Amino acid sequence: MNGLGVGGSQSSDLVNAANALLYAFMTLTCFAGPFLTNLIGFRWTLAVGALGYPLYAAGLYVNNRTDGTWLIYFGSVACGISAGFFYSVEGAIATGYPEHHKRGRYVATWFTFRNFGMIIGGAISLALNHKVNQKGKVGYELYLAFIGIQCLGFFLGLLLSNPDKVMRDDGSRIEAPRGIHWRTELIEMWKLLRSRSILLLTPLFWYFGWIQAYPGTYLATYFSVRSRALGGFVAAIVSTFSTWLGGSLVDLPWSKNRQTRALATYSLIVCLNTATWIWAVIIQNEYRFTLPVLDWAFQSEFGRGFGLYMLERASLGMIENFIYWAIGNLSDSPGDQVRYSSLLRGIETAAVAVGFGTQAVPTPLIATASINCGLWFIALPFSYFATLQVVGKFEEQDRMQDRMHEAVEITMEQKV
């Protein structure tokens, strides 16, 4: 829904305020995710985490029909409480279930399914609003489709197998112990919070969370209704492509050296994000004076602005894949990864809440784009050293494998 630009609403301030409230509650339940997962398991945590989404969509529906706001805020709180648990466990599933050499593509598969919802929603919205060539809000029928799809989430979540029931393709099992005392869990969370891995990744997660409010507000501010619908549809395809590009670059053996693949992917992400925010600042500086209403009927004006939105979505897709791939390779078990995911996604959702809260108060988009650019350059050195830490773990794993091979060869020679 956010792919439509502030949930398809006409009032960006209202939806940004609701999203700030939603993500504030998500931050709290994200940090509590490992405790609930420890009690009821991965499957039930995922299912429970999906319960709040239909209420959020219902709030947008009521506002679209009647201009009422109470259900938007109620739905935001309900969705925030449940979605925090959903966020904490889905990242652990995507990064902890597969083997090391498949994690980039599994993360890409996860984002593909998530983007598929945006593709469906964008296609429906485009079909319903393709004649509306002015600013405004999307048709209310769209929200009925969203509510119907989201009501399936709880039941689909119950189809997940818990880690102890999973066998990987290589025959290995997944270790995710249950029944850990809450004090022990709290101690482990505190240790992880102070670890080098978390401290290095925190600026990147904060940057990634903060910037999420900008693209939708940009789309709602400068584009007609049908162009917003087109943006939501095409952005999902672009995001899917970019996350698969990132996942394939780190996984597929185009270079035999995993370290080379990791650093090359990181370099591409640096170039893409740097170009995105420099271009965003340039365009926003122009738009603050011209205040355009961009529609695809006017190609000369539309292309530059729409291209920036696509570049933003491509940048988000690649960096999202990379940070979860990093989590997956810094920890080996879903038990640890649910802690990594909960802490880092909690930091991300806190940043999202602040970002949406900032946009809820009328803030010039040139200021937001400039802050986005600044946060990116602040996160750069930390993310570089986080990447080196992953590379260092690869080197350690390679040394262990070499020692194992040597031990096997020595044993075989002794038998001969």
UniProtKB/TrEMBL annotation:
Primary localization class, coarse: membrane
Q: Which UniProt keywords apply?
A: Membrane, Transmembrane, Transmembrane helix
Superkingdom of the source species: Eukaryota
Provide the Gene Ontology terms for cellular component.
membrane
Q: Where are the transmembrane segments?
A: 20-37, 44-62, 68-87, 107-128, 140-160, 198-217, 229-250, 262-282
Membrane topology of this protein: Multi-pass membrane protein
Which Gene3D superfamilies does the UniProt entry name for this protein? MFS general substrate transporter like domains (1.20.1250.20)
Where would you find this protein in the cell?
Answer: Membrane
Name this polypeptide is given: DUF895 domain membrane protein
Q: What is the lineage of its organism?
A: Eukaryota, Fungi, Dikarya, Ascomycota, Pezizomycotina
